[in-house]
Fold:
Amino acid sequence: MNHPKQVHKNVPSPILVSFGITRQCDLKCPHCYSDSKDKDPQELTFDEAARVIDDIAGLGARIVILDGGEPTLRPDFVDLIKYAAKQGLRTVAGSHGMGITAEFAARLKQAGCRGVAISLDGADARTHDSWRGVEGAWSKTIEGAKNCAAAGLAFQFAPLLHAGNCRQLGDIIALAKQNKSDAVEIFDYVPTGRGKGKTDHELDTEQRRQLIETVIERQRQNDMIYRVIALPQYWVMVEKTVPEDEILLKFVRSCCAAGTRYITILPNGDVIPCMVLQVKLGNVREKSLKDIWNHSPLLATLRNRDLLKGKCGKCSYKLTCAGARCKAYEKTGDMMAEDPTCWFTEEETRAKG
Amino acid sequence: MPSLRSMEWDEPVWKALCASVTLIPPFVRKRALGKIISACEKNAIERSSGKVETADVLKSVNENVPESVRKVCLETLAEHGMDISTAI
Structure:
């Protein structure tokens, strides 16, 4: 099916749309951004979800990630993957991987799934299972990853780094390589959703610096693709420490794309700029996604980097970093406030180079 | 590492291209990158200019960036202050 592509003047298309198709989940993670557990009574039906996918394709988005909750628990998950892939979207899934048997991995691939992001929050069972709240989760997750690899289905490990597991990053990366992961996408813990107010789990400045330095060092070795999410200072450090030509050849740009190149749709149809920037923009049952994307005053504000406040407003990296808007919002209630976790001094960010 | 550029570039244009190119998936980027940069420089030479400017980049991006990511690249150039109205 062909869709008219995004045409609204001066509003770029999203690159990636995250579509949470269910709130059902069989894990009990303390940080869960969507506070997932049971099926939402307002969950979009297949037909409603298909219309949303049509809208995503119509917006000119390149990639849709079907996640949740745990999307594999939704009975029509594979049908939704198939539907999205047929619309020409690069369709991927975000899963804990525990339900990905060899047969299921093959079905996903056949349906047009281009990859799976598998949450892995520890290099060993004890660390992962204690965070995810279910004994035996780690083994099943690793098994799911192996099944993806065996089926020729690309996958990446997506660890959430918090104060309790950040020392394991190197081991998680080693595990990813050992299991033939295509990439590692590292999430910095943001206290929102079920984790709202649980600031004890947050990394401190030194741990964040260490995370970034580790990833930069690994990416310079160019053994895998690394992405860093909710920690846009990563790109500032890349620009400050890596020769430009090397950045061009090896690095994947990673900045705060909330509402600018990325948007999230929740299982009940609510639309928010990012899974960790939980400001309701509208609901797809009431307004089309295209209408929300093109006309939301909140998104217009978020996209205007001239409206950034405090240190972020004065920063010479504000176009490529912009600070983590989610952290500003969680700390102050103002999504344009300065990123409270940024450690750079004004002098360090005054002039690029 | 040898420089990827072999002639003078308008610096804001180069920065915008860098931001844009880093959105191209790495597995296709390496091949695309050399083509994009050399085409930009060739375009400047064809204009009898010693410096790569906006028009050279837009032409190169249109001709050398894989179709699947071209629109995103152009939009990123616009975000970084380039006038892309002649490219789309």
In short: Confidence is low (pLDDT under 50) at residues 1-8 of chain A. Chain A has 14 helices and eleven strands. Residues 270 and 283 of chain A are 4 Å apart (CA to CA). The two ends of chain A are 46 Å apart (CA to CA).
